[in-house]
Amino acid sequence: EELQENMRNLTGRISGTVKVATVYSVGLHELPPKVREFMSKFPAVKIDIEYSRTTRIVRDVLSGEVEIGVVAFPEPRRGLTIVPMPSDRLVLICPPDHEFANRKEVSVKDLRGRSFVMFERDIPTRKAIDRILKSYGVKVKKAAEFDNIETIKRAVEVGFGLAIVPHPSVIDEEKNGQLAVVHLAEKDWVRTVGIIYRTDRNLSLAARKFIQLLESKPQT
């Protein structure tokens, strides 16, 4: 297999399969256009994507089950290399008839005592949201917890409560009027995203090219 990879490197033809594990919110809403762009450039490569939670993605990257992982709020860890991707803004979402729906932005103080649909406690985005709220001394009510961004969005739609989510994950709902998206005033509301791979792994040429594409900023 390594010999075949070396031959591909020499001939310049990029092919093979890149196994990628990603968290749902990035995999469903940010990777598809990147994968399409990559496939148009390198049609002989197959991108094999699986969706998982951060803890399992880290484990699968370290064990060699997958070649690269894509996670939110990547944390330094021995044996892992992190390549930053463009960050996302975290935004507030609510039903279109909610009192916040017509506001351009809200302050963290406006969230005090409100009911929220949240990610489960062990999910990095939830940890970051909790940390930001705590830093401003703001307590909110927990209406429900889910491990999946899609379930959170549906729960907000039917009136379970508000939620704070990455903006790319709600662009479609914002466009079609299913949800109102409200900017959060403070600069803290940013979700970092990163590619992880095992430091001692000799990445395939296809994987290296895919990482280069993922870390590049979108064209504007």
Structure description:
- The protein is α/β, with parallel strands linked by helices.
- It folds into 2 domains: 2-86 and 192-215, D-Maltodextrin-Binding Protein, domain 2 (3-Layer(aba) Sandwich); 88-191, D-Maltodextrin-Binding Protein, domain 2 (3-Layer(aba) Sandwich), CATH 3.40.190.290.
- The protein is built from 8 helices and 10 strands.
- The strands form 2 sheets. Strands 1, 2, 3, 4, 5, 8, 9 and 10 form an 8-stranded mixed β-sheet that branches.
- The longest helix has 12 residues, at 124-135.
- The model has no long low-confidence stretch (mean pLDDT 93).
The assembly state of the depicted protein chains is single chain
What is the top-level CATH class of the largest domain? Answer: Alpha Beta
Sheet/helix structural class: alpha/beta
Largest beta-sheet details: 8 strands, mixed
Classified in CATH, the superfamily of the largest domain is: Periplasmic binding protein-like II
- CA radius of gyration is 19 Å
- What is the helical fraction, as a range of percent? 25-40%
Low-pLDDT ranges: none
Percent strand equals 25-35%
Number of helices: 8
CATH architecture of the largest domain: 3-Layer(aba) Sandwich
User: Can you write the helix and strand succession as a string?
Assistant: HEHHEHEEEEHEHEHEEH
Please name the CATH topology of the largest domain. Answer: D-Maltodextrin-Binding Protein, domain 2
